[in-house]
Amino acid sequence: MEINLQALARNNNGSAAAAFMTLSGMENLLNNSYFNKTQEKTEMYSDVIIATLPKTNNTELSQPVNFTIKHAKKLRGLVTCVYWKEKEEQKGEEQVEAMQWSVDGCWVAYSAKNYTVCSCSHLSSFALIMQIGEPPPHDPFLDWLEIGFVTIGLFFFALAIFTFLLCSWNPKINNTARLHLCLSLGLSHLLMLCNDRFVQYELTCTVISGVLHFLVVSSFMWMLLEALQLYLLVWRLSKVQIIQRDGLPRPYLYLIGYGVPFVIVGISALVYSDGYGDTSAGACWLSTDQNFNWALTGPVITILVLNMILFGATLWALRPTLANMKSDVSQSTDTRLIVFKILAQFVILGCSWILGLYQSNIFFKVLFILFNSQQGTCLYIVHCLLNKEVREESRKWLTCSFRKSTSQGPVRDVASVSED
Questions:
Q1: Which CATH number does 140-398 carry?
Q2: Lower Cβ count inside 10 Å, N or C end of the chain?
Q3: pLDDT digits (tens, 9 = 90+) for 332-344
Q4: CATH class of residue range 5-132
């Protein structure tokens, strides 16, 4: 307790005294049921403390008194400073004295991991009450819908990864950014699908939140690198009028694609390690305390802005080609496809996050699940089915596999006949 006794002494003939007591276990008697009910769940969050001014006539405080109160458990919601207030209630024709926890004249000055500082303009019995926002009840329909759509999306993520690995040796195809984009997104979707099963395990939940933070930032980082690769491709196209492999070397791509997210997560963990493992939404995610969620929102917004700048720069580099599209049909097709890929990838990854901000009704929830879960499907269509080189490599591989299987068939038949 921090109290200005000198100011009190000046108002009490030069002397003043303060008493401070802690009552352990009283939270079971003076519990949160005496607090005014709100829409959120409440529970006691500290011992009960008593502060008083014995043998003091003028108890008016010239400055607020600060109480540093230790938390009784891990912070999981909004902390409220309360005091034990006596009030009169009208029951029939009689005035009945009643007691309850009240917030009048008390407020939270500062709240940290293990303690909260309460400022009060009077002295009484004090405590902390934590208000916990109840997560919305799970809708079985939305749960099954999410499981089904995410499973489909994971299948196409796996198909896209297999296709990119198959075409990785072709010097005309640079799928490094796309491959690791699908890897990061696929792993993040897989973790998001099952991370609600680990909310009861604090350490595991914290680790999963950190890994998810890394994978989501990494996904957007690889999206930015893919946009950069496409810009360099268009820049080369505008210079030599052909489309060929160009872009950053793979070591630089790995360093940026995984190094930057690792630095962001490392700095975030050092600044506020308790920001990971929040379970208020029913799953392991980032906490909103001390605006820690900006450790993800900030990089995502920055990357989306940079993507928009690259998109504009790519269109600017394509101006001569767009102006003379009718002169070369093949070049016109390639150019339109490049513009479509840039725009489609931005919409695929950015649209789901925008929809995630609007979860007020079931329509937006279903729309968010649909767009977010089918990122793998859209990426497979854009970068595999609509890519001429990838289609040719897949056709060669399937043709070679078919010929190999058919050529081995007669040999086995002859062998079986000779044995007979």
A1: 1.20.1070.10
A2: C
A3: 566 666 667 667 7
A4: mainly beta
